[in-house]
Amino acid sequence: MENWQPSTLSWSFSIKTHFNACKRRYFFYRFWGQDPKLKWKLLELRNITTLVMLRGTVTHQVIAESLSALRDGLPVTLESAKERVTEIMLEKLRESYYRLWHVNNRPPGRKISEFTNLLEHYYGFPDTDQRARENRAIALACIENLFRSELWTEIASTDPQTWKATDEEVFSSFDLDGIKVYARPDFAHSHDQPTIIDWKTGSPGEEDREQLVLYSLFAQWKWEWRPYETKLCAVYLHPDLMLDTFTPTSEDVSRVTKLVKASFNEMMELEPVHEKADISRFPPTNDPEHCRWCSFQGVCEDSPLRRVITD
C-alpha cells in the first residue's frame, strides 16, 4: 500500500447521500488509505454499521433467501423466515460484541468486511441491548407484513423463469453517459409487465422514486427493458405495508440523469489530480445528529460529539 490510490470515482445514491450529508465523512471513507498513520484505523471505521442499517440488511437477506427458495421449488413459511431473521441478527450481534472483525480475533484468511462491527458496540452506547431488541422486532414485523400481503402471494404465483433479480447478485454497475453508476434492484420480474421492486424497512424518503427511476435505466442496460414501460414499486414494510407504484415518464428519466451528472461533477471537482486529497476542502457537517451516527466520529477532530475509540 505504499503507492495507495483511491479507486476510480463512481456514483451511487449511497455515495451521493454521504457526500451531501458530510463531506468530511466522505473524505475519510474515500481517501482512507492515503495517510500511512491512519489508514488501518480508517479501514476499520469504514466497516462500521448501525443497528438500523443491520435490520435493513437482515430483512433484505431473508427476503432474498425466501425468493431463492421459491425459485428452487422449496417450501417457504412465515415462521421459518422469522426464525431466520432472529438467527442472523443474533449471529451479527455476537460478531460485533466479541469483536470478531478485529485483526487479533479474526480467523486466518478472513477479511474485516466479513464480520459485523456495530457503531453502538464500538463507541459504547449504553442502550445497545434495547436498540437491538427494537430493531429485531421491526425486522420481524417487516417480514410478517410482506408474507401476509397480496403482493407476496402474487410474486409466489408467478413463473420464476420471469424473475430477473432477487437481491442476491453482487453489486452491478452500468455506464451512464461515461459515468460508472452502481445499482442493484432488490427484485425484478418480467411477468405480464417488466417490474422492479425495492424493499424499504424505513420511512418514505424524498429520493425513493429517483432511485427506482435509476433502476429502470439499469434494467434498460442489463435486460433491454424500456424505462417508460417498466413498472416501479417501492414497498414500505413497516409499520404497515404500503406500496408506491408508478411508471417513469421521460421527464423523470431526464431529471434523474441530470441529477447523476450534476452530483458526479460536484464530486469530481474535489478529486485530487496528482497529489493527496486536501482534508480542508471537505468541511464537516453542522448537524450533531449526523455526527452521532457517523462511524468516523472517533477520528474527526471537528465532531461536536467526538467519542473515544476503545482499541
Keywords:
2 domains, 311 residues, 11 helices, Trna Endonuclease, Chain: A, domain 1
Brief synopsis:
This protein is of the alpha/beta class.
Model description:
The chain is α/β, with parallel strands linked by helices and 311 residues long. Helix content is 44%, strand content 12%. The protein has two domains: 13-152 and 286-292, no CATH class; 159-268, Trna Endonuclease, Chain: A, domain 1 (3-Layer(aba) Sandwich), CATH 3.40.1350. The protein contains eleven helices and nine strands. It has a five-stranded mixed sheet. Strands 1-2 form a two-stranded parallel sheet. A hairpin with a 5-residue loop joins strand 6 (187-189) and strand 7 (195-200). Helix 4 (51-71) runs parallel beside helix 7 (128-147) and helix 9 packs across helix 10 (250-268). The relative contact order is 0.15. The mean pLDDT is 94.
How widely separated are the two ends? 23 Å
Topology, number of strands: 9
**What is the helix/strand order?**
HHHEHHEHHHEEEEEHEEHH
Rg, Cα atoms, Å: 21 Å
Shape: globular
Number of helices: 11
Strand order of the largest sheet: 3-6-7-8-9
Structural class, by secondary structure, is alpha/beta
Helical proportion, percent range: 40-55%
Strand content: 5-15%
Overall number of domains: 2
Low-pLDDT runs of 5+ residues are none
Average per-residue pLDDT, rounded, comes to: 94
Major β-sheet annotation: 5 strands, mixed
